[in-house]
Amino acid sequence: MTDISKEAIAPPRSFLSQDAIQLFYRLLAALLICAVLAVLSDSFLSLGNILNVLRQASLTFFIASGLTLVVLTAGLDLSVGANVALSACIAGTVIHKTGSPALGILTGLACGGIVGLLNGVMVTALRIPSFIATYGMLWVLNGLTYWYMAGETLHGFPAGFRQIGSGYLFGLPIPVYLLLVFLGIGTLFAQRTIWGQEIYAIGANPVAARLSGIPVARRLLLVYAVSGTMAGLASIIFLSRLNSAEADIGESLTLPAIAAVLIGGTSLFGGVGTVFGTFIGALILTLVLNGMNLLSVSANWQPLVTGIIVILAVWLDMKTRRRTQ
Amino acid sequence: MREAAVVSQPNPLQRIPGVAIVLVLLIALFSTIAPGFLSVANLSNVLVQSTILTMLALPMTLIIMTEGLDLSMGAVLTLTSLCVAIVSLATHSMSLGLGAGLLVGTAFGFANGWLVAIVGIPPFVATLGTLGMAQGLSLIVSDGQSVVGIPHSVRDIYSATLLGVPVPIVMALVTYATFHGLLYHTRFGTYIFALGGNREALRYAGLSPNRLLIMVYAIGGAMAGIAGLLMTARMNSGHPTAGLGLEFDAIAAVAVGGTSFERGNGWLLGTVLGVLSVGVLRNGLNLISLPSSVQVASVGVLVIVALFLDGLRSRA
């Protein structure tokens, strides 16, 4: 309890704040991993591989950036992976039926956003703890997606649509540009707008936030809706990159997204963390998994390593914060 | 301290309606719309199929009573089931297989308890991490393949009967009796109520809440180990996705059974009725030939409704 009140009365973030120092350590860790991988594997420093890492990291980042806002309010959204699967399958069907990628993209975003909004309603109006509500949602979405797809695979989308996920612009993959755009929007929103600061306040101390007149329920709804919409965006990138959609594509996406948020230094207890940190987190996780791939470690090891990283990240975060207080 | 624990004991009469009404409604619904639902063969099928879930949901009740959660249970069950399969295949010994499953399950339980109690990671994230680890280990030890050709001694457990009662049901009954005795008739049980309701009281009484918490999670892991034996026997093989999502059915059973996620009180009989509700729901939807995906979604809806009602009750 004492930690929470301390966070709440902490002065506004200055340039070389605790957060900045934490970020610096994480950048250092990412560089260290790069150096190790460059020594261990010849192909790591090739342009193709680096672009591949960035493209992979951008997919994790899209899901994780929305999730960061949820975690900032001391909540959790376990349904993001399942949300990506459902949104991708519905968007894919719309593109197939209408032939219009724009309509498909809108449907995917809307589907993700509606699921997120439902999560928000469960957390605010029904007052179900977020991790249970979104965990229930995970299985509802899984069920819906499998029932809707009935074992089918959608594939073959218009070439223009596929450019979003697999195309290049000035030598860089298009998802990387999208990553930069959303990194900027997310950072500005969280750090420089009143709504963003209110989200930090809710996470640091929900009671104080309510008493100081912040519409807590409305901000929470917004946060879950944004998380859902970002999952919808990730589903579009996924769809256009793989050029196919199946019911099970979301199963391996949730844990990495949570890992990216936690590695990035966002505290599970709310009120502390940045979207930029999540970007570094996504980068570190992708580098580790990419490195395992380059060193020809079987993909079967990925969930084990991701699980260990999640626990290590939380543990390190709690340890450093305890020491600095 | 004893008084505090007594106050937090649930009043069964107040609780019986909720979950019992759900169960009766589900049975009434499916006996009208699903042909063959009320046959003896089908009902005993529901009972036998609910045994694995019972063995997960009972320890899950204790864990949720401590305001915790174990998301790793299904993945750990998968891993222990594979351990049973691999070890019994290599040694032709059912008890060695069970021993291996028990060992691995308990180790994961201890790890969960340690992460939650000593390191202080919120339970849903700590067990999400161990979920990933157990899932990864399952893929690694099985190389993503089924483990087939397990000995008869393991396979027969699921189909054997003891005095005319199927062995899985006997195991589930023994589990229930053990948990009932443990929770309501031992000091340890009283401490579990206090872990959720009043942790300070435990500290003042000179007990270590952390050690108790670790034990509660370790019990969960050990039960996943025993249930792993049943799972291997039931599937007649070890499969790297066998227990996928079972922890959700267990959480659903506990939630429907009226154990609160926030107030440190639990009701074991309610959990058993919750397990039967989930079993009847899945079986009934199966009989009217709705695919398993719809069953999964409907269990999800069941949980959200149960938690919503629980929230209403706590505010009333």
Polypeptide structure, described:
- The complex is a heterodimer of chains A (325) and B (316).
- Chain A is mainly alpha-helical and 325 residues long.
- Chain A has one domain (17-320): ABC transporter involved in vitamin B12 uptake, BtuC.
- Chain A has helices spanning 2-8, 18-40, 47-72, 80-98, 101-124, 130-149, 159-166, 174-192, 194-204, 206-211, 216-242, 254-263, 275-294, 302-324; strands at residues 154-155, 168-169, 172-173, 244-245.
- In chain A, β2 (168-169) and β3 form a beta hairpin.
- In chain A, α8 (174-192) packs across α9 and α12 crosses α13.
- Chain A is globular.
- With 316 residues, chain B is mainly alpha-helical.
- Chain B is 78% helix and 1% strand.
- Chain B contains 15 helices and two strands.
- Chain B has helices at residues 2-8, 12-33, 40-49, 51-65, 73-91, 94-119, 123-142, 152-159, 167-185, 187-197, 199-204, 209-235, 246-256, 268-287, 292-315, and strands spanning 161-162, 165-166.
- Chain B has a two-stranded antiparallel sheet.
- In chain B, β1 (161-162) and β2 (165-166) form a beta hairpin.
- Classes of the chains: A mainly alpha (325), B mainly alpha (316).
CATH architectural name of chain B: Orthogonal Bundle
Helix tally of chain B equals: 15
Terminal CA distance of chain B reads 26 Å
Q: Evaluate the radius of gyration of chain B.
A: 19 Å
Rg of chain A, rounded, reads 19 Å
* Biggest interface, chains and residue tallies: A-B, 45 and 47 residues
Number of domains of chain B: 1
Q: Write down the secondary-structure element order of chain B.
A: HHHHHHHHEEHHHHHHH
By oligomeric state, this entry counts as heterodimer
Largest sheet of chain A: 2 strands, antiparallel
Helix content of chain A: over 70%
Terminal residue distance of chain A: 13 Å
Poorly predicted segments of chain A? 1-8
Shape of chain A: globular
For the secondary structure, the number of strands of chain A is 4
